[in-house]
Specification:
The longest helix has 15 residues. The strands form 3 sheets. Strands 2-8-12-13-7-6-5-14-3 form a 9-stranded antiparallel sheet, sandwiched between helices. It has a 3-stranded antiparallel sheet with strand order 10-9-11, with no helix packed on it. The chain is an alpha+beta fold and 361 residues long.
Length: 361
């Protein structure tokens, strides 16, 4: 079965979770629509602006600060080759040598206009890219109402997001956050677990493919496929519950920010709209790729004590979920949470999970 046929086949083998049902649910993070590609404007950034955005992204996603500083993408330009170029960039971020493909990818792409998804791209061009073993996962069917339940892990997903155990009676299930939009939480757990393991993931969502490299409490950061000086400004905004409030002067937070070859997107929008993903299997220990990765990982830098850092204690309080992201990261960087297996390179979500696990032991 071809990769694209795996996604087509979900209509026969997967579970139907009609989006109409989820749209009416007040589930945390469910987003019912994608960013309208017509509701954006392109801008050209100066070198100073590029550096400013890189510093901003590094501050928001310190666990990938080195990648942000050194990433040199293959630029898809005006070609509709995002799935193909995204796959090449994902290979680069996974430690593979793309020097030959960087020079010749346009010849390989030919006169194609676009691909429906990553699966179709792998069927047509994947065999020409000898980067090493990868795993392809179709997330939803072509009609986007059928979801691949074979990858779902409800218990692990509830633990990952700090959700309560599965309710026993039907009435409580109707009010349960997980059951209101399980596909969103399952997609989120899958992506964030891979990123926690240091595995970049190419994601097809919003009719665009790019490589996810990090996440925090609100956003996911993609290494995108355009030149650093290209900027895309979305004017669509949403309120805290994800409801679109229009562009221009509408109140709310901007959904997507693209600049300096990176795009920062509301992560719940992404988890709601994933079609398929692909990632490279981690390199075996001792291989050149693995050694290259080890050299590129920077040791965590100890942080100075500040008035905002929580006081030292042998066990964090139960209400650690109320700590801000900056407080969690400051405590981790200062070495105050070593006994929980986290450090300054850990994301705030990973820190919360570690603390939650210890507090339940």
């Amino acid at each position: 079965m071809s990769y694209h046929e795996q996604r087509l086949g979900l209509r026969r083998t997967a579970s139907n979770y009609a989006r109409a049902r989820s749209k009416s649910a007040a589930a945390m993070g469910y987003r019912s629509a994608s960013v309208d590609s017509h509701d954006v404007s392109w801008i050209t950034l100066t070198a100073k602006q590029v550096e400013k955005y890189k510093q901003q992204f590094s501050k928001e996603f310190p666990q990938v600060a080195n990648t942000i500083a050194t990433y040199k993408c293959v630029d898809q330009g005006e070609e509709g080759a995002c799935s193909f170029v995204g796959f090449i960039n994902c290979a680069q971020l996974s430690g593979h040598d793309i020097s030959k493909v960087r020079r010749n990818w346009k010849k390989m792409w030919g006169r194609r206009e676009s691909m429906e998804d990553i699966g179709q791209m792998l069927d047509e061009l994947g065999s020409r890219l000898k980067f090493g073993p990868f795993r392809y996962i179709p997330i939803c069917g072509v009609d986007e109402n059928y979801f691949n339940k074979s990858i779902w892990k409800p218990e692990a997903t509830r633990q990952h997001f700090g959700l309560p155990p599965e309710p026993k009676n039907t009435k409580d299930k109707r009010e349960d956050e997980y059951f209101k939009a399980p596909m969103v939480y399952e997609n989120g757990r899958l992506i964030e677990s891979l990123l926690d393991s240091g595995i970049p993931v190419e994601i097809n969502a919003f009719e665009h493919s790019r490589t996810a490299i990090a996440y925090n409490d609100e956003h996911i950061l993609f290494a995108d496929n355009w030149h650093p000086t290209a900027g895309l400004k979305s004017v669509q905004k949403c309120d805290p519950k994800g409801k679109f409030v229009g562009g221009g002067g509408g109140a709310g937070k901007r959904i997507e920010l693209f600049a300096a070859s990176f795009s920062r997107v509301n992560k719940w929008h992404v988890y709601s709209m994933i079609r398929d993903i692909v990632y490279f299997e981690p390199a075996a220990a001792g291989t050149p790729i693995a050694k290259k990765k080890e050299r590129s990982v920077r040791a965590p830098q100890p942080a100075q004590e500040s008035s905002r850092t929580r006081p030292r204690s042998s066990r964090p309080p139960k209400n650690f979920s109320q700590w801000s992201r900056s407080e969690l990261l400051a405590a981790a960087r200062g070495g105050q949470l070593k006994q929980y297996g986290v450090n300054g390179n850990s994301s705030s979500d990973a820190i919360r999970r570690a603390l939650r696990k210890k507090n339940t032991e």
